[in-house]
Design goal:
Blueprint: H1 7-22, H2 29-54, H3 62-80, H4 84-103, H5 111-131, H6 133-136, E1 142-143, E2 148-149, E3 152-153, H7 157-178, H8 182-192, H9 194-199, H10 204-230, E4 232-233, H11 240-253, H12 258-283, H13 287-295, H14 297-311, H15 315-329
Antiparallel strand pairs: 1-4, 2-3
Length: 334
C-alpha cells in the first residue's frame, strides 16, 4: 500500500497485471516461451542487482549459483524422491548457503579483487558439478520430470507462464519492499561508503554475507525454475558466460533499480532473437552481412554494454524515466 500510494499508480499496475494475465490468449506459443525465459531472467537479475547494484559487491559467479539451485532440484527429485514443489524452496536455500560462504571474503576484498574471488566461486562450482559424477552425473546432466499441479502439467508453456509470472511478481514485490526496510537501507549504506556505514554501527560482515546469500537465493530459485522449464540440467547452462550475461542485464537495465532489472532481463533475452530475425531478413539480400551479424553476436553484446556505460550509465531505467519526464513537461521546457 505504501509503494502504490497514488490511485493512478494502482490503476496502472492493475492494468499491467491484467495485460499479462490475458496475454497467452492472443500470442503464439513461441512468444510465450520467450516470456517464460524473460520471467526467469528477471528473478536472476533482481538477485544480482541486490548484490551489485544495491550493495556494491561485484559478482561474476551468479551463473554458478543458478547451477546450484538447478542441480539441487535435480538431485532432490531424481535421487531423494522429493516433489518439485518441495525441492524448489530448498534449491534457493542451498544456493543461499553456498553464496554466503563465498561472500565471506567480501569483508577484506573489494572491487577487482572481489570480482576475481567470485570468479573463483564460478570455477570451483563448475568443477564440482563436472567431476562429482556420483551426485550430478557430470557432463551428462540430469533429466527431471515436468512439474505438475494436480492434473495440470507445467510442461505446457501456457501453464508454466502463469507459474513463472507469479514467482517473478513475488520477487519484484519482495525486492521493492526490501529496500524500504532496515536491511535494505543498510545494504545501500554499505554500497555508498562502507567505512561510514561501519562507523554508524552497521556490521559489514553480517550485511555483506547476507547480501551474497540473498542474491544467491534469487539465483537458486531462477536456476530451479530453469530446470523445471527445460527439464534437462547440464553445466553448459550455468557457465561464466551466463554470469557475464546477467551482469550485462543489470548494467544495461540500470544498477540499483528494480525496474532496471526487468528492463535489462527483457532486453538481453530479446536481443539474440532480434539479431536472428534481422539476419534471416538480410539473408535474402545480403548473405554475407547476415552471416557476419550472427558471428559477431557476442561482440555486439560487448559494444552495447560499452555504449550504455558511456552514454547512459544508469541504464534503461533512467532512459525511460527521462522519456516520461519529457512528456510530463511537454510542450513546456520548465
Amino acid at each position: 500500500m505504501a509503494v502504490l500510494f497514488a490511485p493512478a499508480a494502482k490503476a496502472k499496475v492493475a492494468a499491467i497485471i491484467v495485460f499479462f494475465l490475458v496475454l497467452p490468449y492472443f500470442v503464439s506459443p513461441y512468444f510465450i516461451s520467450v516470456v517464460n525465459l524473460i520471467a526467469i531472467a528477471v528473478i536472476g537479475a533482481l538477485g544480482l542487482n541486490i548484490l551489485t547494484g544495491f550493495t556494491g559487491q561485484i559478482s561474476i559467479g551468479h551463473g554458478a549459483f543458478m547451477g546450484v539451485g538447478a542441480y539441487t532440484v535435480g538431485i532432490l527429485t531424481t535421487k531423494v524422491g522429493l516433489s518439485y514443489w518441495a525441492a524448489l524452496p530448498l534449491a534457493g536455500i542451498m544456493a543461499a548457503m553456498v553464496g554466503a560462504v563465498f561472500g565471506i571474503p567480501s569483508l577484506r576484498l573489494k572491487g577487482l579483487y572481489l570480482a576475481i574471488a567470485t570468479l573463483a566461486a564460478q570455477v570451483i562450482i563448475e568443477y564440482t558439478i563436472i567431476h562429482w559424477t556420483g551426485l550430478t552425473n557430470g557432463s551428462a546432466g540430469i533429466v527431471i520430470d515436468a512439474p505438475s499441479v494436480g492434473t495440470m502439467s507445467l510442461a505446457d508453456d501456457k501453464n508454466f507462464y502463469y507459474f513463472a509470472l507469479l514467482i517473478a511478481l513475488a520477487a519484484v514485490v519482495c525486492t521493492v519492499n526490501l529496500f524500504r526496510s532496515r536491511v535494505g537501507r543498510a545494504f545501500m549504506a554499505v554500497r555508498d561508503r562502507d567505512l561510514a556505514a561501519a562507523v554508524m554501527g552497521i556490521n559489514l560482515l553480517q550485511y555483506k554475507v547476507m547480501s551474497f546469500g540473498l542474491s544467491a537465493f534469487y539465483a537458486g530459485i531462477a536456476g530451479a525454475l530453469m530446470a523445471g522449464y527445460l527439464r534437462v540440467i547440464t553445466v553448459e547452462n550455468f557457465t561464466v558466460e551466463v554470469s557475464i550475461q546477467y551482469l550485462a542485464m543489470i548494467i544495461i537495465g540500470g544498477l540499483g533499480s528494480v525496474m532496471g532489472s526487468i528492463y535489462g532481463a527483457a532486453f538481453m533475452t530479446l536481443l539474440p532473437i532480434f539479431l536472428r530475425t534481422a539476419a534471416d531478413f538480410l539473408g535474402a539480400f545480403l548473405p554475407n552481412v547476415a552471416h557476419f551479424l550472427l558471428s559477431m553476436q557476442t561482440a555486439l553484446f560487448g559494444l552495447i554494454i560499452v555504449l550504455f556505460l558511456v552514454f547512459e550509465p544508469e541504464g534503461l531505467a533512467k532512459l525511460w524515466k527521462d522519456i516520461k519526464d519529457y512528456f510530463r513537461l511537454w510542450p513546456f521546457s520548465y
